[in-house]
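A note from the maintainers: we've had questions about how concatenated examples are separated. There is no special marker in the raw files; a new sequence line simply starts the next protein. For clarity in this README we add a label.
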Amino acid sequence: MIVCFDIGGTAIKGAVAHAAGDIRPVPRHPTPRDDFDAFVGVLRSVIHDAGGRPDCVALSIAGIIDPDTQCAVVANIPCIHGRPLKADLEAALGLPVLIANDADCFVLAEAGVGAGRGHRVVFGLILGTGIGGGLVIDGRLINAEGGFAGEWGHGPIAATEAGHPPVRLPRFTCGCGQEGCIDAICGARGLERLHHHLSGETLTSEEIVTGWTAGETQATRTIDVYVDVIASPLALVANVTGATIMPAGGGLANSDALLAEIDRTLRSRILRTFNRPLLVKAQCAIEPGLIGAALLGLSERPA
């Protein structure tokens, strides 16, 4: 038995997992953001109610475990930010603890019970407010010990000219502190920034995508540039990892038409030939973080 948690800034979701097909959610609790003892108390109460001693506890967090310091970087939950979280929780709970980033848990869920089933190499990507990703090979998360692998949205690589015909693009400043990141131009906020740069209009990402599907001129131009920008780094990810499926989640991935357009351009730029979609919509639409945490615990639990 595994007790797993999806830790958010507002709520802690929990579940008891006996197998990949037997994950039983429990009532959620408000997140004690500023009180570590209260935070541990929530976890302890769910573990107590599970009805037995679990093999381990697995957490999905909206942050990362620094592989060099083993400290958590979770800006929206101050009481766990900067802590050697695994060690502190194991000492407090008396149980083995596994921790992974929420995007990593998303791809674990997709590889285990979602669109990635049957594939050796699965690269999952988040097309939401920002850009994220994670990599699973042979059912195992590359970031099992923490780290930044899969973060394809960061690094100064965004094109400075894109579209048909080409248009010059600025190197937008990213929240990570760099300029020219894919996150800064291809997340939902980045798409809005791009549209404003091209047209002068201030629209939401949903309005831009809707306008594009309706054939509106300005939105169509923005999506043409957007797809050209995002497809090349995504093609590089496919070539480097050897992924044979790329499940996508997040708000922008809700548009089947947008995913199909990115996929067509992506497949035209990679070395391997696929006669079926490579970029697909994620299948674990409900609680992928919790499912991924459960699968992490089930696959990595101590013998």
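[label: protein 2]
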Amino acid sequence: MADWLTEIASWDKRSQAKVDRLLEREGIRRDGNLDYTCGIFDEDGALAATGSCFGNTIRCLAVSSDRQGEGLLNQVVSHLMEVQSSRGNTHVFLYTKCQSARFFGDLGFYEVARVDGRLVFMENRRTGFADYCARLAQTRREGVSAAVVMNANPFTKGHLHLVERAAAENDTVHLFVLSEEAGPIPFAVRRRLVREGVAHLPGVICHDSGPYIISAATFPSYFLQDADAVVEAHARLDLTVFGKIAAALGVTRRYVGEEPVSRVTASYNRIMAEHLPELGVECRIIPRLTEGDRIISASTVRKAIQDGALEAVLDMLPPATAAYFTSPEAAPVIDAIRREKNVIHH
């Protein structure tokens, strides 16, 4: 009986345990964000190879050390690409260790950016990132340009304060809203509330981040040793990609909000402040907006919504955001926030 490749359902605890054991043997931890997993089993039921998807990314690829060199990983990747195609995803991404990048290059993936010694970010379109930068370059303006990147989950007066500060100090602000669906508030809603919230600032140009600015929620951590290594690698990858985006737009400053609560975000800001100047971009960390002894943050707003105390935080929201959350349209989003296990980012 030959090897057989099959989907491994989330309820199949026995096979899922085999996936975990294989990943661990190959020095990989299961990623927290997976929505499809497959495996190649031998005639005795032993798992020889595995791979997974999340959204339009391929993750958690591993082959048993005693079966390497047999083309199993090629079979897994081919199968996962078929899964992606069935989902309508023609633009696919993966993250891999540096030593594996050449192998994936042979399978039709192209390097977007790398963090030497850590990881390589790849896509299946030869000019995908170059085309993205070319489209951005069409919005380039004369004068001093800055950039702001935000999830805006939801858009608060704190976010608005950051954008207004950048707009006051620069001729143009390129505002990127993370496109990934990584939280209870849909991207379409987040984007709309940001655009309505900054409509009074003529120097602000809003952009979808697309797949090239990766949020902490979906950054792959499965082949990194610890939380600090994850933050470091995420920041370095972000900076490498952002440096190319900044060059396309003529951006010389990036504005970020000071982070007094989240250790992860504070570390991320520190790494950006240290390394962005190497790319010709100044990092300006702006103190958080406060009202009395309250720090205005999206986490605080989400927690209040979860607790049924929206009225207590309406003064933290710009008019468009407040109007949305007090309208019937927001009911499904409010329900989704209330179902979240953890709405506070640490």
